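Thread: quick sanity check before group meeting

JM: Hey all, I'm pulling together slides for Thursday and realized we never actually wrote out the predicted structure for the chain we discussed last week. Dropping the sequence here so it's in one place. If anyone has concerns about the input, flag it before I start.
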Amino acid sequence: MSEEQSQTPPTAAPTAPEAVVAPEPPSLAQAAEAAQAPAPEPGRVLLDMPVDVRSAALVFLAVLAAVFTLRWAAAVFIPLMVSLLITYALAPLVDKLQEWRVPRWLGAAVVLLAIGGSVGWTGYRLSDSASELLDALPAAAQKLRQVVRAKPVGGNPLDTVQKAAAQLEQAAQENSGRAPAPRGVQRVVIERPGFNVRDYLVSGTLGLITAVGQLTLVAFLSYFALCSGDTFRRKLVRMAGPSLQKKRITVKVLDDITGQIERYLLVQILTSAVVGLATGLAFWALGLENAAVWGIVAGVTNLIPYVGSLIVMGASSLVAFLQFNGIEMTLAVGGASLFIHTLVGNLLTPWLTSRTSRMNPVAVFVGVIFWGWLWGIWGLLLGVPILMVVKAVFDRVEDLQAIGELLGD
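JM (edit): ok, ran it. Output follows.
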């Protein structure tokens, strides 16, 4: 054998082919299930939306607990929210005084005392006109009631229905099977107690004391919040965690809340001033008494969405009906009030809020109804700012962005 042949490596022996394992045939139970399964419909798209029933139930219970807590502790939460709005409204003035080297505690006291003094002086100057206006409302309501109850010559359908109801009630009492009182036994009729002035004085005094206490609480809360400046803001950023991203998100949320509430309050103040001035001038031109008081009432009630305009329109129409004793001037006064509120609400307010984060009108209406049911008149005033805060928070939380989108315009 040569040397080249001795160095050639031996050839590997051929391997046997691997055996292919055949799949097991389906069992009878699997074949029956496959036969009973419905065939997929052509063109039908199914969305995979897993729902955690336990998490949904916990969220529902948490919402119910929060609503109950807000309603039960309304005497605490309402002053807090009112003072928060006052703080947002007056913080720019205090900041400007601080830039002029005025201490913050002194600037906050000066601003609050100036606003409180202005409101008190205005109320004192218009107290006589306001008393006349309040005295005229019951008389107007009584006169309107007399006009409605006046019987026409041919008879009133309401009176006919009332007589029929009285006859049916009398027949029911006769056929009720009640045995007459036996001889010698006198039937006793229980009468309700008459009107007691002391009860109403006590309840009115307690309500006045409660209102004064809440106003004092709001004043002190607003003062301390204005004195603190951005202390709570820095604390919230610090509480967000060590992560820089979380701190940035917290700062962004706080900036959104501050900007939206400040713009909302600015728009509300401007529109209320326009509504009050226009209403006072219109009522003065029509000859309605106490036109200046009506202007202030219209400006204040303009802060209540949807309900404020209806209050002013109804009350001014009643007073106009009493003063002019005619339906024409009543319609003119009510129509002027409705026209001013409609013009400002549909033209001026959207133009002023064009750069703000606008809310969905349906969501705003539902939110105002909810907060009005929860807190009454204060809920109507605070409903929209609370919704704006909720939307600003939900827009920055990934799991809650769907709700923020629902609240948005």
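AS: nice. The radius of gyration is 37 Å. Confidence is low (pLDDT under 50) at residues 1-8, 16-21.
JM: adding both to the slides.
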